[in-house]
Design brief:
Length: 50
């Protein structure tokens, strides 16, 4: 399963990161991409959760 943080975004005084994770569907076996924009401190927690 591929995981990567692809961009650092800055909006005003907040620093944000866009994170994309590949998720395999248990029903069909196909992969989908899950995207989120969050603070850099929360990235590893989001990538590690299932």
């Amino acid at each position: 399963m591929a995981k990567k943080s692809i961009a650092s975004l800055q909006t005003g005084s907040k620093r944000l990161t866009k994170v994309i994770k590949m998720v395999k569907s248990p029903k069909s076996g196909a992969y989908t991409f899950s995207e989120s924009i969050m603070a850099p401190e929360m990235v590893s927690d989001w990538l590690n959760k299932k």
